[in-house]
Amino acid sequence: MNTDAVSTAVVTPRPAWLGLTWAVAFTAPWTWLIYALPALPESGLPALAVRLIAYGLIALGLWLGLERTALTPGQRQATWLALMVPFTLWAAVAWTAAINGAFRTGVSALPLLPAAMLLPVIVAAPVLLLSKRVGLLLDAMPPTWLIALQVYRVFGSQWLAFWLRGELPGLWALPAGTGDVLTGLFAVPAAIALATGTTEGRKGAILWNIFGLADFAIAIALGMVMSPGPFQLIVPNGPSMAVDTFPNVLTPAFVVPSSILLHALSLRQLFRRSRAETV
């Protein structure tokens, strides 16, 4: 092993752990703030800020990624619009429905909230996973972007704060909140490890994606069987599920399917690069 390899092996863990430390340093006081000031999350301002920041980063990252491709300027613009226009309309519809209480239990005989979580994934996933142009974009885009972006998952610590205040059942809030926080905390370290270009870094990034998807699978399944409605199988003792009103409902109605699609894109990108390197 040469000097450069030894240096890389010794130095790369440090920034990964540093990223984790900074994420923990932010998440802990944020969770306390949500716990101590209930009016803050109820105002919807944190939800608005996080959504706008994530939206802006997605729009910017998409454009910068397209600029790295060999597509013509017209093709880049058309591709950017083809992805961002439906995404923007989806966000607007979900936000409007949430504000107007469309997802509240009993408002409609149809299971609108489960539909809001699953239908976007069912419709968009085949397009994003099979499109050749999206594949070109993923080949040109640094694989760290899609992973580091999901650092916003640390805001899922709000579910833990609500549980501590006695507003959500622990059977749902503990696994959902803990899974979100861990996914967000390890997003930056996973991206840093991936940036080293090692096999271990790629495996770590794949495992991070799988963990993030498993977190959603558990949270969605528990949420459906514990929430009042046709799928309820468990009636919790103590506080009932209370995530069907604005702004909390935006998480299952928009953030969850958006994040699932980001995980799917990241996995497609990682596997495409792995195949390209083995050819």
Kindly describe this structure.
With 279 residues, the chain is mainly alpha-helical. It has helices at residues 3-11, 13-36, 39-43, 45-67, 73-99, 112-130, 132-140, 144-148, 157-164, 170-185, 187-195, 199-226, 250-278. It has one domain (3-278). The protein contains 13 helices and no strands. It starts with a helix and ends with a helix.
Task: Provide key terms for this protein.
single chain, about 280 residues, 13 helices, about 0% strand, globular, about 75% helix, disordered N terminus, mainly alpha
Taking all Cα atoms into account, the compactness measure Rg is 20 Å
Using the alpha-carbon principal axes, give the shape.
Answer: globular
Helicity level: over 70%
Characterize the quaternary organization of these chains. single chain
Report the total helices.
13
Profile the largest sheet.
none
N to C succession of SSEs: HHHHHHHHHHHHH
Query: Ends: how far apart?
Result: 25 Å
Number of domains: 1
Mean pLDDT score = 89
Structural class determined from secondary elements: mainly alpha
What is the count of β-strands?
A: 0
Low-confidence stretches: 1-11
- Strand percentage lies at under 5%
